């Protein structure tokens, strides 16, 4: 189904709020609207009433009014997931953290993946910050592995290490993504400079190479930093004490993913705000995008940021001339798949049960023609304990029917 920008600009945002049924204010407005005004806004046909199981068109609850306002999307984007153990070097290994796999690419018949790797237990901020690990992703380097079949993996070794003491990435480099473009390879990743305190401001770095095996050349400075318009309150190392919160990414820029789109380089990322709150959708997490003419930058944040009001890890792919996005974990629109005709203006396409952590997409799959083709299989990570995580394989499939145990469905 081909969509264009004008169609999406005309689509009322209220319809999506109704889709999720989360906003009490919307409900209140609907219940207090006059019948004539409300009925004029709703398309009420006998077929639609029958499909929704609504039998009395003159007595519509707020839920029924929301349902009648839903757009007709079908279930092309509704996906469910299964997760499997891997074989070889990416199987679980006690004492080793392997997490946040990048997208999977294929070069000369081999699959490649990059990931965060560290060792040892996690002490948190109450420990010896200078010498111990604050989080599992603390004191990480970026490693990589290869596979012939996507199941059995060989760990090839270090790709991008932490920087020298005093550099912007001297504490940890982690949560990486890969872009293969015109014979070169680009890794984007999060960076932390010591000391790793609560108020530390994460940044985004980039390294490039002529081969997926490296060697990798790192940028001398980060390619993206948090906004500088927030203001902490007091000297206590507390991220929730602020005089001014600032932009949606005033504390941290996380989970970078670089795509080449519309002849420019789009760096999608997660923003964390100073004074982050817990809302009715969970943590106050949003996504943004920064755009450059050259993969090495400079990257300019879009004036339309934030481009999502929800989400956690970035998971984006090309589809139908636009960009699709899997939104998980946090915010009022979590557990949705969204699509944008221009890479900026995203609308909900489906509400799913959930998704594996930190998905690394398989970039070799057909993502342009099949709405959820990018989610057929890829990599993820799973917590074995608070201290240790390991990489697994996910498989996604479109769900079209529900069948009772022992019964069969002609529609399967």
What are its keywords?
412 residues, 26 strands, 11% helix, Tachylectin-2, Chain A, 6 helices, disordered N terminus, 2 domains, mainly beta
The DSSP helix count reads 6
Low-confidence stretches: 1-39
Could you tell me the radius of gyration in angstroms? Answer: 23 Å
Q: Examine the secondary-structure arrangement and name the CATH architecture of the largest domain.
A: 5 Propeller
DSSP helix fraction: 10-25%
The backbone outline, from C-alpha atoms, is globular
Could you state the CATH homologous superfamily of the largest domain? Glycosyl hydrolase domain, family 43
Mean pLDDT: 89
Computed structural class: mainly beta
Number of distinct beta strands: 26
Q: What's the number of structural domains?
A: 2
> Roughly how many Å apart are the termini?
22 Å
- Output the CATH topology of the largest domain: Tachylectin-2, Chain A
Question: Sheet bearing the most strands, described?
Answer: 6 strands, mixed
Strand content: 35-45%
CATH class of the largest domain: Mainly Beta
């Amino acid at each position: 189904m081909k969509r264009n920008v004008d169609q999406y600009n005309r689509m009322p945002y209220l319809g999506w709020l109704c889709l999720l049924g989360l906003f009490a204010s919307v409900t209140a407005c609907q219940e207090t609207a006059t019948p004539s005004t409300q009925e004029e806004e709703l398309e009420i046909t006998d077929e639609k009433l029958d499909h929704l199981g609504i039998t009395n068109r003159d007595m519509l609850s707020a839920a029924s009014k929301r349902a009648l306002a839903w757009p007709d999307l079908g279930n092309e984007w509704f996906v469910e997931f299964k997760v499997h153990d891997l074989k070889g070097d990416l199987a679980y290994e006690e004492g080793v953290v392997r997490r946040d796999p990048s997208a999977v690419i294929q070069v000369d018949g081999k699959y490649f993946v990059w990931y965060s790797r560290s060792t040892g237990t996690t002490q948190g901020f109450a420990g010896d910050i200078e010498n111990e690990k604050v989080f599992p992703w603390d004191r990480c380097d970026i490693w990589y592995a290869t596979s012939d079949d996507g199941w059995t993996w060989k760990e090839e070794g270090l790709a991008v290490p932490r920087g020298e003491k005093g550099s912007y990435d001297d504490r940890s480099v982690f949560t990486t993504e890969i872009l293969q473009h015109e014979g070169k390879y680009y890794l984007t990743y999060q960076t932390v400079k010591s000391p790793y305190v609560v108020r530390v401001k994460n940044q985004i770095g980039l390294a490039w190479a002529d081969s997926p095996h490296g060697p990798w050349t790192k940028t001398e400075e980060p390619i993206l930093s948090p906004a500088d318009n927030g203001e902490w309150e007091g000297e206590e190392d507390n991220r929730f004490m602020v005089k001014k919160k600032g932009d949606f990414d005033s504390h941290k820029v996380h989970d970078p993913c670089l795509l080449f789109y519309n002849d420019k380089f789009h760096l999608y990322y997660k923003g964390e705000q100073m004074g982050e709150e817990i809302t009715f959708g969970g943590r106050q997490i949003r996504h943004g995008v920064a755009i450059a003419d050259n993969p090495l930058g400079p990257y300019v944040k879009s004036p339309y940021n934030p481009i999502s009001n929800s989400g956690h890890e970035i998971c984006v792919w090309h589809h139908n001339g636009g960009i699709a996005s899997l939104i998980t974990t946090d915010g009022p629109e979590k557990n949705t798949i969204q699509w944008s005709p221009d890479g900026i203006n995203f609308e909900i396409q489906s509400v799913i049960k959930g998704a594996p952590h930190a998905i690394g997409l398989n970039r070799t799959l057909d993502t342009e023609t099949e709405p959820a083709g990018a989610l057929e299989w890829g990599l993820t990570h799973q917590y074995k304990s608070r201290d240790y995580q390991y990489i697994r394989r996910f498989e996604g499939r479109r769900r079209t029917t529900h069948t009772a145990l022992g019964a069969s469905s002609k529609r399967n």
